[in-house]
Design goal:
The complex is a heterodimer of chains A (293) and B (270).
Chain A: H1 3-32, E1 38-40, E2 43-46, H2 57-63, H3 76-111, H4 113-126, H5 131-144, E3 146-147, E4 150-151, H6 154-178, H7 183-191, H8 196-234, H9 240-249, H10 255-284
Antiparallel strand pairs in A: 1-2, 3-4
Helix pairs in contact in A: 2-10, 3-4, 3-6, 3-8, 3-9, 3-10, 5-6, 5-8, 6-8, 8-9, 8-10, 9-10
Chain B: E1 4-13, E2 21-31, E3 36-40, H1 47-54, E4 62-67, E5 70-71, H2 72-77, E6 81-84, H3 96-107, H4 111-124, H5 140-152, E7 158-162, H6 170-187, E8 190-195, H7 198-204, E9 207-212, E10 217-223, H8 238-252
Parallel strand pairs in B: 3-8, 3-9, 6-7, 7-8
Antiparallel strand pairs in B: 1-2, 1-4, 4-5, 9-10
Helix pairs in contact in B: 3-4, 3-5, 4-5, 7-8
The chains are: A mainly alpha (293), B alpha/beta (270).
Pfam family, one (chain B): ABC_tran
Domain ABC transporter (chain B): 4-238
Keywords (chain B): ATP-binding, Nucleotide-binding, Transport
């Protein structure tokens, strides 16, 4: 067995083990935790462990096999799957927009020190703007867009908000990566009279990959969060975010239901991170092993 | 026509500020085609700065530099020289052959021509079986040979080297010195070589340029009369030791303030 295969088997089994462990801890707390929560001087410090607040793992899992609403012939797993697929496509769109903008900005910042000085503080500030506040703005701006017959679809707002969270780590990580090319290598390129563009593609980008991969991982999960939050705050139908908010309203009557959607969102995030991880393995397969992330 | 001609070159960093450094003052140096010239001196004597002025990686504050009878910047644009540094500086993400092809790629050579030249260069440095390996799979000495192959890939008439063997162990270093002499005589390349090591400078060079710091300048140029056919036996020859003694004495004078401190700081005596 190749070391790579052995490592991936090891990693997968560790992942499964950690999931099982979380489930065990959940059930253990349900067993010994106070039904109505622990309070010290009136302040709740321990969460309630009753079936409404913390349904059993098996009731969450078995919920997937039952219909979404009473009398419906659609089982909830297919609804959650369809929602996750819808949000996944939005996240990929958001990630693509965010990656394009992020990499573009980082190249501009690497090229012109002035741009970096002027732009970077704004990028940092942009991430402190709450997404919930931004979502209605984007939707209303989008509604006004009408260029050459192109009208702004509502889903694009969600994708843009995903991009908004995705571009920042990508821009910052790529910028660091582009700056990581050793000065001796830069000197070498300049001794070959290489143009800035040649240096960018033959030296700076390849040297940036070990920095870009973790940045893209952060960006991918950022895109998912952005899309899910945007679905909730703009009321976009069809995605996993919308399912979470809908099912959460039924939490008292059907507490396991919301968890089916939450797990769907988690699986979505994992799928996104997984794609970046695969690209990592492909891009780094010929690099010295100590620089792989 | 001289390969390198430096006339009255000075390089002053941070001019007019309290941090002003006179890295080089009024340097004159001529290197003839086919010659092997070493620059030696203690740290801060400006030997690397002089090499970078010739390479046009730095602009002189004053003075004129021509390489192959062209301005230094024109000869850089024409890739009239190859360069090798202390760190081999190979790109981890390229195979050995692709590393050698890098300067040719930048020049816009087509693929077949590049591959043929890379093969030729790998044979020159005697590592043809490593073409498809990655640099980090090779030892330090092999990496440095690949770096030399890369520097010579475009067949430049001039090779500029900045302590290329400084990071190698002594055995590898002596082997590399022999290889470099063989490669340069096979390719008829002119070399300007920066080093810290006196024996290395003497063994390799036709002329050793001794430099001194504060301000950086050339204090003496020593001719080495070891002939053109140098072998491992040359390291035991009287002329070799005479050359070492001459360079060492020239270096003694470079440290006005530490003249009685024994060995010259920053220069290896081995």
């Amino acid at each position: 067995m190749s070391p790579l295969a052995r490592r991936s088997i090891y990693r997968t089994s560790m992942f499964v083990l950690s999931v099982v462990l979380v489930g065990v801890l959940w059930e253990l707390y349900k067993l010994i935790g106070p039904e109505d929560g622990g309070k010290i001087f009136g302040a709740a410090v321990l969460p309630r462990s009753n079936d409404t607040a913390m349904p059993h793992i098996w009731s969450m899992l078995s919920r997937y096999g039952r219909p979404e609403v009473r009398g419906s012939d659609r089982q909830i797993w297919s609804v959650v799957l369809a929602g996750a697929w819808y949000s996944f496509r939005l996240s990929v769109a958001g990630f693509a927009i965010g990656a394009t903008i992020g990499v573009g900005l980082s190249v501009l910042m690497a090229r012109f020190k002035m741009v970096e000085r002027g732009l970077l503080p704004y990028l940092v500030v942009s991430q402190t703007v709450p997404l919930i506040a931004l979502a209605p703005l984007i939707v209303s701006w989008g509604g006004k867009v009408n260029i050459l017959g192109f009208t702004w679809p509502k889903w694009l707002s969600a994708a843009v908000l995903g991009a908004f969270l995705a571009f920042f780590p990508i821009a910052v990580g790529t910028l660091r990566g582009l700056a990581s090319a050793p000065s001796a290598s830069l000197e070498l390129m300049s001794s070959y009279a290489a143009s800035w563009k040649q240096t960018l593609f033959k030296l700076r980008f390849p040297a940036a990959i070990p920095f870009m991969v973790p940045a893209f991982k952060l960006g991918a999960s950022g895109a998912v969060v952005g899309v899910v939050v945007a679905e909730i705050s703009t009321g976009l139908k069809g995605g996993i975010g919308r399912l979470i908010i809908e099912y959460a309203r039924e939490a008292t009557g059907d507490p396991a239901k919301v968890f089916t959607a939450v797990f769907g969102a988690a699986a979505l995030g994992l799928a996104m991170a997984g794609f970046v991880a695969i690209s990592d393995v492909l891009l780094m397969r010929n690099r010295p092993k100590e620089t792989t992330t | 026509m001289s390969a390198v001609n430096v006339q009255g070159a000075s390089k002053i960093f941070n001019q007019g500020t309290p941090k002003q450094v006179d890295a080089l003052v009024d340097v004159n140096l001529t290197v003839e085609p086919g010659e092997f010239v070493s620059l030696i001196g203690p740290s801060g004597c400006g030997k690397s700065t002089l090499l970078r002025l010739i390479a046009n990686l730095l602009e002189p504050t004053t003075g004129e530099i021509t390489v192959n009878s062209k301005t230094a910047s024109q000869s850089r644009l024409d890739q009239d020289y190859g360069m090798a540094f202390q760190q081999a500086g190979l790109f981890d993400w390229r195979t050995v052959a692709k590393n050698i092809e890098l300067p040719l790629e930048l020049k816009g050579w087509d693929k077949a021509k590049r591959a043929a030249r890379a093969k030729e260069m790998l044979e020159l440095v005697k590592l043809p079986e490593f073409a498809d390996m990655y640099p980090w799979q090779l030892s330090g000495g092999m990496q440095q040979r690949i770096a030399i192959a890369r520097a010579l890939a475009a067949h430049p008439p001039l090779l500029l080297m900045d302590e290329p063997f400084g990071a190698l162990d002594e055995m590898t270093r002596e082997y590399m010195q022999g290889e470099l002499l063989r490669i340069c005589s096979e390719t008829k390349t002119t070399v300007v070589f920066v080093t810290h090591s006196i024996p290395e400078a003497v063994y390799l060079s036709n002329r050793v340029v001794v430099m001194s710091p504060r301000p950086g300048r050339i204090t003496e140029v020593i001719n080495v009369s070891l002939g053109s056919n140098r072998t491992e036996d040359t390291r035991g020859a009287d002329e070799f030791f005479k050359g070492i003694t001459a360079v060492r004495e020239a270096l003694r004078g470079t440290h006005d303030d530490h003249a009685n401190a024994g060995a010259v700081r920053g220069v290896e005596d081995r």
